[in-house]
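Q: what sequence does this backbone want?
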């Protein structure tokens, strides 16, 4: 046939499943996304100035005024730093909960005679006998403290006096005595008391620890709380051990404090804030909630506990609801999706099953995109938009599930990039033990594609409205420390003073005369690039003689972003394949591209069948 021109454009997305010749989608790509149906390079990323001391297993950010407050949880540490509007970071502060003794108190207020008869904590007398007034109230306070310390009660307490104040401390460190009522009876001497508080549990150290974070306003203190949950859930998605909740001022640097669970409760699954309630959930379908407006009180009036399902609850998120039924939440059990809605009265919340016989691959695999929830199950992708249903994926579902390191699948985490309509599922591929690749669903373009993650991989993070981009944590140790990366920043990899180009490419679908019933090669002689382009790009023809033949790679041609001579306006080449594809690549400093309508000049080639 005579030479003709075609537009070198395939259907949007990268098709990994099936054969390359099956379909008209792009067949390969790296660090490339689709917008308006056309390929463009994914943005660059740069590291913050400070390092985390442990690999992150949960990361969150909170914006107030000109700072972004970031927290990361590791195997046995919670770290905090801030980022300003320019991306500069503060020093990293350790907010790890430490074991502390609960403390209460009795103040000897007035009196010059009589005695302190009893002091009870949680209804148990912690004195061996009454202590009579001696000399002064401060001397009497010292004698009472000595009596408490010498007497072994169950549970046990020690005491110390400072002036007329008696400080009572639980002998065993931990949060269990928090809230215990301190009461004193006396003759003549008047007293005031302070209940037990500030006891704290330390993090239970585990290499399998995973973290969840959320935020909630506490109306009792007028503070915004950071809510933090940790459990060894990387060992098994239905892990039924551990589970701790900690809280602290979201803007502060003080160590976090633990929250007590009610009897017969557990929080092996996690936490979620459904304002003004803090919900916790876990093994055997348990879901509990705090007193309204007080996320640290899980036993007071208005709190509650329900067993809504047989299997473990893995994940919870806020759900929009109508007047009278808010707040509402959606919860993922091991094998079901459950809804919680506010009903008030003695019941407070009711629960109903939205779908059963579902699955979820990891606790961090769920994304809320404009009120529609997307998640990865153990064998398919799912969504909830009022009804639970499968997200169709004929592009890379086998590539994702067959290629995943299944022994590490609980590390899968998801995030969104709203600007481009994308949901990313990061996962360990092949023999990787950290997330090394991502599959991407573009809600706006209704297509799928994938990419390898940067060489150090990613472990946690999510979208940040401050930068309209995700903040992700690195998986590669640098002298025992781990970087934090702000993505969609420029077009290069920037780490301190080091700047590296990012390789980005895409490869078209097959061009072939076979679809017109002509058993002949396709020859391509010229390409007219059409790109919004920074830096040089290359083009290369590849393809095969037939579907089972080896790939034949042609010469790599370079074209600049600005054509200064007429011959630079096109790429002259002479290649033929029976099944022909074209690859475009950018791998230069400050390199970037957005594809337009690329024109290829083609004609009939040889009629040889086998290569």
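A:
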């Amino acid at each position: 046939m005579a030479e003709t021109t075609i537009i070198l454009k395939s259907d949007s997305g990268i098709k990994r499943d099936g054969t390359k010749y099956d379909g008209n989608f792009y067949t390969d790509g790296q660090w490339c996304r689709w917008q308006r149906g056309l390929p463009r390079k994914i943005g660059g990323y740069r590291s913050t100035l400070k390092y985390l001391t442990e690999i992150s297993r949960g990361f969150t950010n909170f914006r107030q005024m000109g700072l972004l407050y970031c927290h990361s949880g590791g195997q046995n540490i919670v770290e905090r730093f801030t980022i300003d509007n320019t991306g500069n970071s503060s020093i990293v502060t350790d907010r790890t909960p430490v074991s502390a003794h609960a403390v209460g108190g009795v103040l000897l207020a007035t009196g010059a005679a009589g005695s302190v008869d009893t002091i009870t904590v949680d209804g148990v007398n912690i004195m061996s006998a009454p202590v009579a007034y001696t000399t002064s109230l401060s001397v009497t306070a010292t004698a009472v403290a000595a009596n408490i310390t010498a007497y072994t009660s169950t549970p046990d307490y020690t005491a110390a006096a400072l002036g007329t104040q008696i400080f009572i401390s639980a002998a065993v460190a931990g949060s269990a005595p928090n809230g215990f009522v301190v009461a004193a009876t006396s003759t003549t001497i008047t007293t005031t008391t302070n209940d037990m508080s500030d006891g704290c549990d330390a993090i239970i150290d585990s290499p399998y620890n995973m973290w969840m974070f959320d935020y909630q306003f506490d109306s009792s203190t007028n503070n915004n709380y950071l809510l933090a949950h940790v459990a060894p859930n990387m060992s098994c998605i239905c892990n039924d051990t551990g589970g701790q909740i900690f809280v602290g001022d979201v803007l502060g640097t003080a160590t976090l404090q633990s929250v007590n669970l009610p009897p017969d409760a557990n929080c092996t699954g996690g936490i979620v804030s459904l304002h003004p309630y803090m919900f916790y959930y876990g093994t055997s379908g348990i879901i509990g909630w705090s007193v309204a407006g007080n996320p640290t009180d899980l036993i007071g009036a208005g709190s509650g506990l329900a067993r809504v399902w047989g299997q473990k609850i893995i994940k919870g998120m806020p759900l929009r609801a109508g007047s009278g039924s808010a707040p509402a939440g959606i919860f993922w059990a091991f094998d079901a999706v459950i809804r919680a809605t506010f009903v008030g009265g003695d019941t407070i919340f009711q629960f109903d099953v939205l779908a059963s016989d579902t699955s979820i691959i990891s606790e961090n695999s769920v994304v809320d995109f404009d009120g529609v929830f997307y998640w990865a199950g153990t064998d398919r992708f799912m969504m909830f938009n009022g009804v639970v249903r499968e997200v169709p994926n004929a592009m890379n579902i086998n590539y994702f599930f067959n290629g995943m390191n299944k022994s590490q699948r609980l590390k899968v985490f998801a995030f969104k990039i709203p600007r481009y309509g994308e949901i990313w599922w990061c996962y360990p591929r092949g023999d990787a033990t950290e997330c090394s690749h991502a599959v991407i669903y573009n809600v706006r373009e209704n297509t799928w594609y994938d990419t390898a993650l940067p060489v150090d991989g990613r472990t946690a993070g999510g979208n940040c409205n401050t930068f309209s981009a995700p903040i992700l944590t690195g998986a590669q140790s640098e002298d025992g420390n781990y970087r934090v990366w702000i993505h969609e920043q420029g077009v290069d990899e920037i780490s301190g003073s080091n700047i590296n180009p990012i390789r980005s490419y895409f490869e078209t679908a097959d061009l072939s005369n076979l679809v017109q019933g002509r058993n002949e090669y396709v020859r391509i002689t010229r390409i007219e690039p059409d790109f919004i382009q920074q830096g040089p790009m290359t083009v290369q023809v590849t393809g095969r003689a037939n579907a089972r033949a080896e790939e034949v790679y042609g010469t790599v041609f370079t074209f600049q972003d600005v054509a200064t001579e007429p011959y630079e306006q096109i790429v002259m080449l002479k290649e033929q394949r029976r099944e022909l594809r074209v690859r475009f690549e950018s791998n230069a400093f400050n390199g970037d591209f957005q594809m337009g309508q690329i024109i290829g000049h083609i004609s009939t080639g040889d009629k040889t069948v086998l290569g």
